Fold this protein.
Amino acid sequence: MSMESAAWHSLWRATSAEQQQRPVSRTTVRRVLALARERRARLAVFVVGSVLTAVLAVASPVLAGRAVEAVTDGERRTVVVLALLIALVALAEAGLGLWVRWLSATLGEDLILDLRTRVFDHVQRMPVAFFNRTRTGALVSRLNSDVLGAQRAFSGTLSGVVGNAVAVVLTAAVMMTTSWRVTVLALLLLPVFLVPARRMGRRLAALSRDAAQLNAAMTNQSTERFSAPGATLVKLFGRPQEESAAFAAAARRVRDIGVRTAVLNAVFITALTLASALALALVYGVGGTIAIGGALDAGSIVTLALLLTRLYAPLTALAGARVDVMSALVSFERVFEVLDLVPLVRDPEHPRPLPAGPLTVEFDHVDFAYPAASEVSLASLEDVAVLDARGGVPVLHDVSFRIEPGQVVALVGSSGAGKSTVAQLLARLYDVSGGAVRLAGVDVRETSAASIRQAVGVVTQDGHLFHESLRANLQLARPGAGDPELLAALERARLGELVASLPEGLDTVVGERGYRFSGGERQRLTIARLLLAQPRVVVLDEATASLDSASEAAVQAALDEALAGRTALVIAHRLSTVRGADQILVLEHGRVVERGTHAELIALRGRYAHLHDTQFAGA
């Protein structure tokens, strides 16, 4: 067994008592060791450096003891040589210590990079249902605080465990050969190290978990309340004091946990320091008595005293490492918890390509129910004790229709009828519960997400934009697009004059969620992004629902540009926007209850005619 594996194994056994109270699974430990094995070459070099540092740490007290003996014997030249050797050892120990610290830091930072990218990439593969349920702050906390906590195991704890374990073994061995009686008496105080570690490790691990949860809750509250719509909502309802009180209450709990943790650590370290001081007094008292009797020389007493300080210091660090290991394992466990969530929507092992050219869209007897919380989320990310394991209520029932290339099919119906769900299934944000959704005859579950994203473009009602420049938001659709292409798309989206009037042009930052622009301007920006993507299938999900008449007219003109020559599914609440559709589907309670052209449905005098008459009653 390698030395780093032995160190981790011994720490696992040392923390077994705490795990019986609040289990950190053996699987977590095995996965941590797997991460270590991925870096075994650098770990091996690190261990060698740690061993050499420990050897040098033991060498200095031995040389100091011999120097005292040389002084007692009057050997001037020997004293000078030993003094030089002590200086050289000190320099070597300092230089080697810095190098070992650099190694441990690179290992830790490499782990941060690895875990952060794994978590980020994995979260991006999660379905929309995951984000609908998860607290954003809690998720960000996993990516930041917990990853940093896991990193400490490599950059700090591992460095201390390996170096200090070697130092303890070497120091104890040299002390035993110098005077076994004094060494045994000094080690009688060893239980003072173990008892506080065993009792406090469990308490500190529990406090670490509580602090992580509370920090995540505060992050979530800050994320929501500091956004433009969140801050507006708080101000409109006049609740800043209540929000401040709630945040302060959580912050006070974090403070109290911090104080308790600091006090426990202080008591722990004080007890260990006191034990070290008592042991040193024992060495001078007992060793001095033995030396007066002639069984031990003064140099050996100095060696023992110096070695004892080198012994209890690493023992103290090892005992404290128990706490760090428990905290790190908690962080690893929270990170692995996210990585173990299996995305419900996944690419097939061998995806089928979509054919070139125009695409048909087909819904073939589609049924759908939203997944249960237990399938897509974690209780700790939702701030609940137990996730709801019940399955979702079916929202679509036997939905079938077909859109030929170049056709525009409109989907209308009451709120909650399932219209937006249809759009999400076409973009494969969810998978159907029954039936199939096909593009040009290819089931969307059989092709890749990349192929779907290239083929299907969606414009949603909220017109979401990132807090970045106009250029960056537009280049989401086509990363390599140059300024001429971006400006052309903006012109086609009826935004050319607006962008030309901005002092910074394409470099203008749009603000969080695009709140520096009006609703109509934001919507036209998303349409410009769609035009850049050049999808073969366009989905418009209530794209003009929240706009005034003037904005709607501008957006509708941009939409006409976007729909030209493309297969389109238009979901609309305002029936005036879909009169020209090739076919209109009326969806109610998750079922298609009527279909036909505007004129046919008006003549039918059914649900569509009722919706139409209700909207245009004033006219």
DSSP finds 23 helices and ten strands in the chain. Residues 134 and 477 are 26 Å apart (CA to CA). Strands lie at 361-369, 394-403, 408-413, 434-439, 442-443, 456-459, 537-541, 567-571, 583-588, 591-596. The mean pLDDT is 78.
